[in-house]
Design brief:
Layout (H helix, E strand, L loop, with lengths): L3 H25 L6 E5 L42 H8 L16 H6 L14 H5 L7 H16 L1 H10 L1 E5 L2 H9 L11 H21 L4 E5 L8 H8 L10 H24 L4 E5 L2 H9 L8 E5 L23 E3 L7 H16 L5
Parallel strand pairs: 1-2, 2-3, 3-4, 5-6
Helix pairs in contact: 2-12, 5-6, 8-10
Length: 359
């Protein structure tokens, strides 16, 4: 017959195992019901694969070379994008699927999808060159998503999911590069870049309010990166007689001013939308620090892309030369960050984004 000490020990072991399993479950429990993504190529996980006229697509090698199975999914990098990494950190899912992907499962719909399109922007004129899905049209896709979500979980539960979802908005760079710097089609209308910034921010405000009206409450809105340090921008200036590869200070200065305006605008938008929580996602400072202190992040190259080098094309293909160590390059092609860079940005911004979980 078992002694009282033996029984007590067995009960102790059972309690210990149960506690361990409970702790494990708590750790892997999703921190938010879903994640919803809007924007441009910085967060497009493959929607452009299904946009026939889109000028920018990455559903071919060497893109995705560091994804499972080396799948060229349509992500403009060698691996996961910022939004995928955030989704993983929130224990929601490892990869956020594009909404236009055929045969999306109900479980994928319930935990959130991606509406972003490479080449998109807040300014409708941006899409004249890129043929992307405009930011202004992405809420229409979102409405279709809501309809399907309601069909799966019912109207009440669907709105609970959307209200609690983490929403990421990342766009703006294309507006300035395609309309103001490289193809100055907006300069005549907006001679001062500050005026064009106000125009874009007006579009951004309208966009955020539309998402709110559709049920979004927890939003992270990204600022501009150091645009003047993008390899393609540096090369453009180099081809015009600049003697060596260096960042374009004026474009970076513009990005800083835009970001300051955005940081001032977002609290005002939040104050006008009851129950909302809107945070600013700082992309500029972490990327600027990577450029200034590359060794700190394990980078050996910050001025050219891992594939395609410093070409004027932002795209890579099967014929372009690929670097041997992708994690040593800040950029994967001449405009898009590498997986290593996206990982650093996600790590640096997570504490800010975490504030949305308490809202």
């Amino acid at each position: 017959m078992a002694t009282s000490k033996t029984i007590a020990f067995i009960l102790f072991l059972i309690t210990l195992v149960a506690s361990s399993n409970a702790a494990k479950k708590a750790i892997t429990q999703p921190l938010a019901p879903a994640i919803l993504i809007f924007g441009d190529s910085s967060v497009d996980t493959g929607n452009n694969n299904y946009v026939t006229d889109a000028n920018f697509k990455s559903n071919h090698i060497p893109y995705g070379v560091d994804l499972p199975g080396k799948a060229a999914s349509g992500r403009f990098s060698n691996g996961k994008l910022y939004c995928d990494i955030i989704a993983s950190k929130l224990h929601i899912k490892e990869l956020v699927p594009p909404f236009l992907q055929p045969n999306l499962s109900d479980s994928e719909i319930v935990t959130g999808v991606n509406f972003a399109s490479a080449g998109s922007g807040f300014d409708e004129q941006t899409m004249l060159l890129s043929k992307a899905i405009p930011l202004a049209d992405q809420p229409t896709m979102f409405k279709s998503y809501i309809t399907r979500l309601k069909g799966i979980v019912g109207e009440k539960k669907a709105m609970e999911i959307i209200n609690g979802a983490i929403v990421i908005v990342s766009a703006g760079t294309n507006d300035f590069i395609l309309n103001y710097y490289d193809f100055p089609t907006r300069v005549e209308e907006y001679p001062k870049v500050s005026d064009y910034q106000n125009f874009v921010l007006g579009k951004l405000e309208k966009f955020v309010k539309e998402l709110y009206n559709l049920g979004c409450r927890k939003m992270s809105v990204g600022g501009l990166s150091p645009m003047g340090c993008l390899p393609i921008q540096v090369t453009t200036k180099l081809s015009k007689g600049i003697p060596k590869r260096r960042c374009i200070k004026s474009q970076n200065k513009d990005a800083v001013l835009y970001n300051k305006k955005l940081q001032k605008l977002l609290p005002a938008i939040e104050a006008s939308l009851p129950g909302s929580k809107i945070v600013y996602a700082n992309v500029y400072d972490p990327m600027n620090d990577m450029i200034k202190h590359p060794a700190k992040y394990g980078f050996k190259e910050t001025k050219i892309g891992c594939c395609g080098g410093a070409g004027l094309s932002d795209m890579c293909n099967s014929q372009t030369k690929l670097c041997s160590n992708h994690s040593e390059y800040m950029f994967f092609d001449s405009i898009h960050p590498s997986l290593a860079t996206y990982t650093h940005i996600a790590n640096s911004s997570y504490s800010t984004l975490f504030k949305l979980l308490d809202a």
